[in-house]
Target: Ornithine carbamoyltransferase
Amino acid sequence: MKHLLNLIDLTGDELRHLLSEAARLKDAHARRIPAHSLTGRVVGLVFEKPSLRTRVSFESGVAQLGGTALYLPGNEVGLGWRESLADFARTISNYVDALVLRVYKHSTLDGIAATGSVPVINGLSDWSHPCQGLADLLTVRELFGSEAGRTVAFVGDGNNVARSLAVGCGKLGANFVLACPPGYGFDEPFKADYAARVGGEPPKEFNDPFAAVKGADVIYTDVWTSMGQEAEREERLKKFAPFQVNAQLLSKAAPNCKVLHCLPAHRGEEITDEVMDGPACAAFQQAGNRLHAQKAVLEWLLK
Ligand code: CP
Ligand code: NVA
Model:
């Protein structure tokens, strides 16, 4: 049984396969070629947190492949509190062919994957966001022809989005650097996992955003306060203030540098309107690529 829980579980060849399939599906979609790879299949979507991109791109993607998506709000399903994770997983495996879950705790995904009998796709956890990472890499590939050899400077929190992108870059030969305030970089468990399962040079970390973006092909940012960290918001606003992606920071990167953001953006915090609405920003192309990357994942797991 294959799952998509973390990009680190995939080989470089599997990642490259998913990216080329995503590009093929994107082209087929643009040419309005009907697809039937998920006919008769049902994909359950269980979300403990809000979403626009992940939910809608999965629902649309499943429909475009001829299947049916079923949205199940987390507070109705009650993972681990209305019933045990194992009882949930064993029950729902009778009804759906795959599950997409957005959860607070990554261990919830592991528990369901271990006890259910259908593929589990991580639609964001506190640990990682692999579907986002795939769409990010697809976007870098489209913008630069190849991700290999490019430098991505992530300016912000060493969070779920940063971890997945760092791993994807590492596995595909792109350089990933992180700029964040002291104490907000990658934690020891991630560094150990990276060393063991990605290898090579570990991602460089900077406390100076200007040093980090020097020569970068891509500047990437995400919200400073992720879902579930709301109590830390005031403290984070202060600490991350010097890490805003603005025109001054962008001017220090490579001349044709592109700006990516997983969205939703908190304009005026981690990124300015000027950059979001400027010519370097490819965040909406990136958001569109969620659809195609996830269709490739669904076919990879279900076909
Ligand atoms: N980037 C992302 O996952 O967006 P949503 O939270 O809207 O799904
Ligand atoms: N790091 C953010 C990503 C949102 C798509 C969060 O977890 O809230």
